[in-house]
Amino acid sequence: MTDRPSALDPDIARRLRRDGAGLFPAIAQQYDTGEVLMLGWMDDEALHRTLTTGRATYWSRSRGEYWVKGDTSGHQQWVRSVALDCDGDALLVRVDQVGPACHTGTHTCFEAGGPLPARVGDRDAGPAAEASR
Amino acid sequence: MTDRPSALDPDIARRLRRDGAGLFPAIAQQYDTGEVLMLGWMDDEALHRTLTTGRATYWSRSRGEYWVKGDTSGHQQWVRSVALDCDGDALLVRVDQVGPACHTGTHTCFEAGGPLPARVGDRDAGPAAEASR
């Protein structure tokens, strides 16, 4: 927990495991296509706002403030569902993303960064002999 | 960076932004269905092993050791592709998951934790009047 006050339901707050800064990672996924759009960070209050406003809201680590996704860019994330993981330290937020999710203009933040060269594994054959992208 | 040595390609290492413990979050997604399976943590060497062995490999924060997903459970994650996000502080690992991804036995870790009550938002109508699951 941080010293930032939060109206988050105490039953939910009790289940969260936070890092030293009171934050936990939140994965934003497009609800219908399954695309992983971005990873942001939330504290208790960001989660509370995400659960109660219909808009995904993060804590900006760089600016040190709440960040309602799309307030500046117009690229809102409308919340469809929110799930906590088995040990309470990660969140999956399924959203309807308006426009590109990434500030670079790509649809997801993982397109912007690009693929890394990876050796592909196969459940039947094991690791492939050749690295591929 | 931590003091754990790593054989990770320096060109990739240079692009990473790590937390105070030298870690960054890695999202595991089923490559064909798009399901988000879990979120794990990697350091440089875990990423190196993930990129070069065909098996998703994490750093276990609780045990303080590398964790080749499935070595104990048999529920391997065979790597299909790996992407870094726009600012280098999160990873998307698309895998072929054998068996359940979660140690609780559910297919994903986000089923195990269960949905949180969320007000649903709509890009045309705005936030819904009723909270729903």
From TrEMBL, chains A, B:
Its cofactor is Mg(2+); Zn(2+). This is Phosphoribosyl-AMP cyclohydrolase. Keywords: Amino-acid biosynthesis, Cytoplasm, Histidine biosynthesis, Hydrolase, Magnesium, Metal-binding, Zinc. Catalyzes the hydrolysis of the adenine ring of phosphoribosyl-AMP. PANTHER family: HISTIDINE BIOSYNTHESIS BIFUNCTIONAL PROTEIN, PHOSPHORIBOSYL-AMP CYCLOHYDROLASE. It comes from the Bacteria. Its main location: cytoplasm. The lineage of its organism: Bacteria, Bacillati, Actinomycetota, Actinomycetes, Frankiales. It comes from Frankia umida. The keyword Nucleus does not apply. Mg(2+) binds at D85, D87, D89. It is an enzyme of class 3 (hydrolase).
